[in-house]
Amino acid sequence: MPYLSEIQHRRVIEPNGNEVGTLKDLAVVPQGQFPAIQWAILATGAGERVLRWSDLAQEIGHLRLRARLDSLQDAALPPEALRLARDLLDKQVVDTHGAKIVRVNDLQLSDVDGQLRLVGADVGLRGLLRRVGAEPLAERVVRIAGRKLPRGIIPWHLVEPLDAPEANVRVTVPRTKLALLHPADIADIVEEMAADERRAVFEQLDVETAAEALQEVEPEMQAAIISDLTEERAADILEEMAPDEAADLLQDLSEERREELVDLMEKEEAEDVEELLTYPEDSAGGIMTTDVVSLAAEQTAAQAIERLRALKPDPELAYYLYVVDAEGRLEGVVSLRDLVVAKPDERLAQVMNPHVLKVEATTPKEEVASLIAKYDLLALPVVDARRRLIGTVTIDDVVELMLPRGWKKRSLRSIAR
Fold first, then answer.
1. 30: domain range?
2. DSSP alpha helices (H): ranges in 11-163?
């Protein structure tokens, strides 16, 4: 298969053999699995000319125009077109299969059904050696050592361009492939990006995916990302985040920015976050989430299961189901297993365990972690001074306390998903 470096700078001749320039670049519209080469950019004595690729024929050692240059009509590149050499060579791309950022050293082309197409990005050493004409020599050297020169080709459909081209070209490739990755993989990728690239990713991801990915990003970088986004976009993402995660992030922002974002959030989500912000960071209230499933003692097991189906809580919030009275005071706890095996008409008051371990919102977080570890719990309810249920601390919150800061966002939440 040919590579861009092998045909770039080739002589371009007219039908009569007169040389009129060299091939400067190729261009595609980045659509489909393997986009077709549609345009050729020539460097001529009179300046740059853009022609249809179909106006040229490939011959050994050169390219031949199908008609005289002065008789060919100039083509216009659409705004979404990518120039392969200018916009991709030496640029960063996301390998969405390996979930990492790599540099494009060369581009692999292929003649598919008579149409030249972009089929892969060479991100290995071979690509660099090929561009300087040293690939054959390097192959001989490593062969003497009994080894092979490794290949580093990523199929184009697994590639997501990152770097923005020059100002006169607007890349409109949707980041759909990046959005399909696990949030933790997206976080790993954006942590390697420059600030403007991170901003572009979080502007284009859907809000739910952006929120999940942001929760996995290093805490120090979370605040930088939110600060770079528009207020409306930042508020939308914060609304989708777990209240405790949103509150932690907001704590790292300036008071002015924090107030602006909370004001833009939906009322219910804003109230949850504001409540969490009132607690010290080193207390149970400071690390708990207010997303908690509470049920009435008079409900039957069948009714409780129906409520769970309607609520569709996150996995970590369904470890334990808390039973409360009419005033919201904690009366007992029911495990998901106990609820499933209970008779459909059995009331929760009969199924629940009334001896539920709990902590107050002011309890130091180290004590909370100690209790969860000692009693092998998956979650611990948090109550106020009147014994009303106000939140819960889950096992992943405790893992975040125990792990080094750099590992915080790789908690059990990722496993639970």
1. 4-79
2. 125-131, 135-144
Q: CA 41 to CA 53: how far, in whole Å? A: 9
How do residues 139-166 score in pLDDT, each as one tens digit?
Answer: 888 788 778 777 788 888 777 766 544 4
Answer whether residue 365 is part of any domain.
yes
User: Using CA atoms in the order 188, 189, 191, 194, what is the torsion angle rounded to 10 degrees?
Assistant: 180
| 111 touches 99 (CB < 8 A) | no
Give me the DSSP letters along 159-194. EEE-S---TT------THHHHTS-HHHHHHHHTTS-
Contact (Cβ atoms closer than 8 angstroms) between residue 252 and residue 229: no
Q: Number of folded domains in the chain?
A: 4
Which residue among 58, 79, 100 closes a domain?
A: 79
d(CA 39, CA 51): 6
What pTM was estimated for this model as a whole? 0.56
Q: Are residues 195 and 271 in the same domain?
A: yes
- pLDDT tens, 208-245? 999 999 988 888 889 999 999 999 999 999 999 988 88
> And the tokens for 393?
């601390």
Q: Looking at residue 158, what DSSP letter applies?
A: G
pLDDT band at 401 (very low <50, low <70, confident <90, very high): low
Domain boundary among 79, 100, 135: 79
Q: How far is CA 145 from the centre of its chain?
A: 41
